[in-house]
Amino acid sequence: MNRQHMISCSQTIISPIIHELIFSIDTSLEYLYKYIELPLQNIFYCFGNISSCYFRRRSLIEFSRHSTQILVQSYAITFLLYFILLLFGHLFTISIQNHYFIDPFLSNNRQCINIKFVRIYDNEHDFENIRLKDNFIRENVIIGDQVYRKNISNYSQLYELLHLLEDDHYMICQRSLYIYARFHAYSSLLHSNYSQFRFFLPNYPSFTIDQPPFLDLCIHTSNHTHLEQIKSRFLPLASHYYASINVFLFDFNFTQVSLTLYILNNESIHLERSSIHTGWLYDIYSRFHFFKYNYALSTVLFDGLSVGQHFIDYFDYLYVPLPADPLLALNEMVQQALLILPLCGLVLWCVPSTATQFIKIVNNAIDKAVLQGQGSAQKWVAPLSPHHIHYKLDNEFELVFILGYQKTLNISYADKFLNEIQKRFRDLYKDDLTIGGFNRSFPFRVTYNKVLSDIEQEDEDAKKVKRAPRSYEESDKKQKTVKIVTKKGDVTTDEKKKKKPKQMATSNKQTINAVQKEELDEEEQEEQEKEEINNDEEKPIEETKDESLVNQGEKECLPLEEVQQPTLTVAEKLSAMGKKPGLFTKAPVTKASPKPEKGKPRKVLATSNASKIDISTIDYSKDKGGEKVGNGQTTITTPIADRPEQGDLKTMTVESPSITSGLVDGFWSKLKKVNVFASKTLTADDLRTGIEAMREHLIAKNVAADVAEKICESVSTKLAGKTLGSFESLTTNIRQAMRDTLVMILTPKRRIDILRDVVDAQQARRPYAITFCGVNGVGKSTNLAKVAYWLSGNDLRVLIAGCDTFRAGAIEQLLTHVRHLNNIFNEKNMPMIELYQRGYGKDAAGIAAEAINYAKDKKFDVVLIDTAGRMQNDEPLMIALAKLIHVNNPDLVLFVGEALVGNEAVDQVTKFNQALIDNARLHSSPRVIDGIVLTKFDTIDDKVGAAISMTYTTDKPIVFVGIGQKYQDLKTLNADVVTEALLK
Amino acid sequence: MDKNVNSEFVDESSQIFPLTIILSFLVVFVTIVILWWAKNRHKSFRRGECLLLCGTSNSGKTLLFCRLTMGLAKRTLTSMAINKGSMILETSSTDRPTKKIHVIDIPGNLRIRQRDFNTNKNSAKAIIFVIDSTTIKEESKDVSDYLYDILHEKTFRQQRLPLLILCNKQDINNDNITIQTIRNLLENELTMKRKTRASSVDVHQGKTELINDIGQLGKETFEFSDVKDIKVEFVDGSALGTEKKSFADHYDDDDANNEKDIDSGGDETDADSGANLNKVYDWIEKIWIK
């Protein structure tokens, strides 16, 4: 059924396009002939005339004719090819952006569908507006369309019934979908059990909404028996096809709003939703107190805005005007330190303005967390400072949003807050950010306060409504902390700022007594806690807005939608294009982007808190309903003030899933990799496949699985939200980002220059000690010998301390090495290399200490301490190693690991590190591994994953790599080569 | 040629069509290539025309960048990406128009500076190496490491680029570290660096570079005056002016402050930059306006 309809749909839409195409090509060819080919021929002809020889002249003319023809035709075909390419480009764009649903309130395109079943009576003069009348008639034609009814046989019965009703003296209207859209947000609560539903209408592209429709029928009648009749006949049938039906029965006699609502309350089939509908109708009708039959029909129910009139104006047509920004009415309670900075290091905005003391901490955090891209965590807890740092990376504008607060606060909404701030900031300063105009000041305080208060308010609401607070659990924070949070937050605010929010709070009509009480309490506590607050800090972590957006959206409603995506065919997309050409032609890339962005801030808010809002909304409306019945119309103003705002939020939620979902799995996804014409903003969805492949690839290259996972996460967070330019493919982008990340991981964050440090040690008249440790058989002694060779080559005297008192032959092995090396460096009378050994079975730490002392006496420059190999799980041996290191405090502790290991590498290196930390002596800062020696690097071909695994887990550089059996085979790591090998 | 024409004339339909198609494909292809080329060309940022700001982390590059390009002192944090901008150099002589100079600020973080440095080194026309005078004693090894890289850089040497070593943060320098002290310190370090670098372990699979020592060959100690192919100059200064309060103004965007900030921002900092960065401006002027 659906398929049939789709085909017919596509036919109706494609065929005119093709006709149009052929026609335009025809005309353009004609044009080409007239204005290019003919003149060219004439020119050649003239040349021909000049030529004396007849034959040559003739041939020249022929030649010219052909050449011009070829030229012209080639141009024509070029033109055609271009056209096709452009078409592809457009289709491609559609498949990516996939704006199925544009909020009709905000859009001029009128994407909304109005299915109207309108009976027009003879007395046409009832309609003052001719255009409206035409509109009605046109819509009626739809109903009369037999084809349509055949295609949708499922509904035919229903429509028959509707016609039946029409024959009666009833007027039935299905609410236009824009109203549906506006209240769609409620439906997440209403219809949470159902998945997607798709509308098919002949004149419109297929239309997907992610909720089942509730068919809202407004039946106006003057007779109560008629009402009962309709109900009894209509409802059972309709409910068979629709997930839920909300029938609003209006009595024409009751022209007063309040009376109408009263009836609705009683007649609504789903009583539990009555409050919502009441609220909705209340919302609509309260704007039209002058509500009269005809007028109301034409304005509210018939989408009767005259053409060109903006929808916003429609809402401005209120007796109770909406505040410009509804959030203004909300109060501010929490103040944290917040910084916004672009990647290039300038602080664009921060609060409090005296945040200078945090800069050091933040710098530290940037260094640690952001640059290394450790996973995609948004949170960073400084090990030694009492602060939490949340950060968020905006890839599109290369901004970082950093939020810092005290650990004890445990703010549950930090992520939400950052998201919101990000959206707002982007919206506010989009233009400046795009051109890189950082040299202005960014007055953001007002918005900041607003957002803060808004988020706070939600928290409060959720607290009041004692239902399961879903979004809290999502952010895995405990609810009891919320109160503390708000208090603490207030403390941070400085006096001036504090006063403002309070005024706001009191003026806020929404605030209930309970809330005010809480605030009072908080104020008291503020004073006590003021001192503590001074040390707020910020740290950065990366995350992308898009990803978070998508993720959040997905969590709630996407999965279901995705199920249906594959069913969307090319035809549908074509039809979608047919419907939306205005959008594309009117809004080229730059223009198009602002549009969705405008919606984003609210969307995020709405999606993340949808459940919460819904709960609170219900409560409000219930309250309102009660009030209204009691007080009559006068009470209207209060609820209106907040209702529209929440309504708006919800409207936007309709959008977000449809936009983000895209036709990811559709036919065009194959085309995605080549982005020819459209510049496109990457989303996490787009990246998923590529990143997944990349992860597999990394694992295949011997990178430990969880390390690969984390690296891929951080790469995808770095990429999401970036705009892909023309001629840039996704794969190259991923590869490039991956390459950057890998190189960054492999690049040492600390300068390691052993020779230079040896010079320092020489000046201090002490030997420079290097300890080698690692598991059995990785090549500690061999590489120690290589290092000794290298150092001796630089005229340094080396003492090797044989602290492997465990394995048979260990000392002898070293002795052999020493003998060999001394043979090589035999030009001086003094042996360059010596072995210090005390046989087997002795305490290694003691021998090392003796060796260092010996070296000091004998003026050795470097002491290389060879330790016994041990497994990372061997507790006693690890304790012994820790003792050796902490007693002797060598200048450099090198972990020797072989490049052959995969997942094991992480385990080894972390356990060694941990053992050193755990077994540190009290009151001394624990020594950890300073660097890594990667051995057997020549044996692994391009499976160089161990290098990444080890550096990533320990964050320590690879000091040497061993690439062979000879003494010379000691090299430093070439990050580029390794990276290339990994990506190969 | 005549033959060709004739044969074409004889067998018209069979010959022309494939030709046309080939031609049209060629045109499409060529157009795409041209577009692609144009795009790529746009990407590379002004070869050999830029002023590079280098230096270790937290030495004040970004602040200097702000001062040069915007005339503002902004609060900065560790940079994670390069800054690109352009400064307007006003010339004293009236016959010359004002000069626009592109400035690139390379982050000092060890992890990323190598990459950014390599991608941008070809754009350099002059380099300012920023040193934090207050911490130079502790960081002299890292600073000299970086400085060695720059002095050793082949492209710079070939082009004989001018290098300005700016001893920054002189406004908060309490230890009386003068240019001369810093210079000596760096020379000592570089002398050592010269030795150790030459004998350090080879890079795995790396290209063996010609040992092209900085400084004078055969001479035991390194001196900046020995560097012939890069014109090194030392100046002191401070990117941050005396007006530290402007920080607070800039970020405290309460309404009242706002307007004041916008009004006064330019004048205040302009006047100030004259004092602290005069030498830098002189140097830039010298290079760009000969």
From TrEMBL, chain A:
GO molecular function, one term: GTP binding
Membrane topology: Peripheral membrane protein
Domain annotation SRP54-type proteins GTP-binding: ranges: 957-970
GO terms for biological process, alphabetical: intracellular protein transport; SRP-dependent cotranslational protein targeting to membrane
Composition bias type Acidic residues, residue spans: 519-530
InterPro entries in alphabetical order: AAA+_ATPase, Longin-like_dom_sf, P-loop_NTPase, Sig_recog_particle_rcpt_asu_N, Signal_recog_particl_SRP54_hlx, SRP/SRP_N, SRP54_GTPase_dom, SRP54_N_sf
Disordered: annotated span: 458-550, 585-605, 624-643
Family the UniProt entry places it in: Belongs to the GTP-binding SRP family.
Stretches with biased composition (Basic and acidic residues): 470-479, 487-496, 531-550
Signal peptide (from-to): none
Protein name stated in the entry: SRP54-type proteins GTP-binding domain-containing protein
Subcellular localization: Endoplasmic reticulum membrane
Record-linked SUPFAM superfamilies: Domain of the SRP/SRP receptor G-proteins (SSF47364), P-loop containing nucleoside triphosphate hydrolases (SSF52540), SNARE-like (SSF64356)
From TrEMBL, chain B:
Membrane topology classification: Single-pass membrane protein
GO cellular component, one term: Golgi apparatus
Alphabetically ordered keywords of this record: Endoplasmic reticulum, GTP-binding, Membrane, Nucleotide-binding, Receptor, Transmembrane, Transmembrane helix
Gene3D superfamilies: P-loop containing nucleotide triphosphate hydrolases (3.40.50.300)
Pfam family name, one: SRPRB
GO MF terms, alphabetically ordered: GTP binding; GTPase activity
Stretches that traverse the bilayer: 16-38
Region (Disordered): 248-271
Compartments where found: Endoplasmic reticulum membrane
Main location class: endoplasmic reticulum
Superkingdom per UniProt: Eukaryota
GO biological process, alphabetically ordered: Golgi to plasma membrane protein transport; intracellular protein transport; protein localization to Golgi apparatus
InterPro entries attached to this UniProt entry: P-loop_NTPase, Small_GTPase_ARF, SRP_receptor_beta_su
Family: Belongs to the SRP receptor beta subunit family.
Name listed for the protein in its UniProt record: Signal recognition particle receptor subunit beta
Protein species of origin: Rotaria sordida
